[in-house]
Design a protein that fits this description.
- Helices cover 22% and strands 47% of the residues.
- The chain is of the alpha+beta class.
- Strands 1, 2, 3, 4, 5, 6, 7 and 8 form an eight-stranded antiparallel sheet that branches.
- It is globular, with a radius of gyration of 14 Å.
């Protein structure tokens, strides 16, 4: 899990895919944290991505660092604890202008039951389950 976290953190931006009805939706994301032994991401409850993940918790993440790429396939589950929100916003203080722990909008999702595959053009793919 540490390797997945480090790769995504170093990339800065990754792409998160969700499903809305039967249509895939992909958008750039930038939050990744480790809280209580799990990888977590953050969004606002008012955003369509939140509704999509609540309706269908299956997500995929793709990131590229210039030479290698990472695909993460997981399910998400909301971690409603204020401590999870505080931890995330401490990791990303620039978000505090839009989000506050306990504001009813800040939402943290943990990635569960996942697989991460590291790939490149020069090495065999390597998969990690978490």
């Amino acid at each position: 899990m540490e390797e997945i976290y480090t790769f995504l953190k170093e990339c800065g931006t990754y792409y998160l895919a969700t499903v809305e009805d039967d249509q895939p939706r992909v958008r750039p994301f930038g939050t990744i944290d480790q809280f209580d032994g799990r990888l977590t991401i953050q969004t606002g409850r008012s955003k369509p991505v939140s509704a999509q993940m609540h309706k269908n918790p299956k997500i995929e993440i793709c990131a590229f660092n210039g030479t290698k790429w990472l695909r993460v396939c997981a399910c998400v589950e909301e971690d409603p604890r204020i401590e999870a929100q505080e931890h995330m916003l401490n990791a990303y203080p620039s978000l505090r202008g839009a989000y506050t722990p306990g504001d009813g909008n800040t939402e943290v999702f943990a990635l569960v039951s996942g697989t991460a595959t590291f790939s490149s053009f020069t090495e065999e793919p390597r998969t990690i389950k978490f």
